[in-house]
Write a structure and sequence with these properties.
By secondary structure, the protein is α/β, with parallel strands linked by helices. It has a single domain, classed as Rossmann fold, CATH 3.40.50. Helix content is about 45%, strand content about 20%. The protein has a 4-stranded parallel sheet, sandwiched between helices. One of its GO terms (molecular function) is branched-chain 2-oxo acid dehydrogenase activity. It comes from uncultured marine group II/III euryarchaeote KM3_63_E12.
């Protein structure tokens, strides 16, 4: 766990962990930030335990939203944590377009987009 909090679970991996950490610090909401070290296998138990505590989940990754690993993760979380979720799962991802190398920073999730998703699940 990269950060510990009580209000929301943010799950990320790779380069997006640092961006998610910045977003959490910027928005001022107490969040668990789970830094997945591996995707196969991924630490379902740590995620389930965190969501049971917080009731909210934001998944952050740089791949497109459609068919990204975050979609599989969201489905699995929904199956295992349905009665603990107080808001729909939010995913902050790259756009559903080919990866544009010249405008990479517009494509990647930004701290502002992540903070907006955290605030959205807190309002539900």
């Amino acid at each position: 766990m990269a950060m510990e909090g009580n209000d929301c679970t943010v799950i990320s991996w790779g380069a997006m962990v640092h961006v998610a950490e910045q977003a959490i610090n910027d928005c001022g909401i107490s969040c668990d930030l789970i830094d997945l070290q591996t995707l196969v296998p991924w630490d379902r138990d740590a995620i389930v335990n965190s969501i049971e505590k917080t009731g909210r989940c934001v998944i952050v990754h740089e791949a497109p939203k459609t068919s990204g690993f975050g979609a599989e993760m969201a489905a699995s979380v929904q199956e295992r944590c349905f009665y603990h979720l107080e808001a729909p799962i939010e995913r902050v991802t790259g756009w559903d377009t080919p990866f544009p190398h010249t405008t990479e920073w517009d494509y990647m999730p930004s701290p502002a987009r992540i903070a907006d998703a955290i605030k959205k699940v807190m309002e539900e």
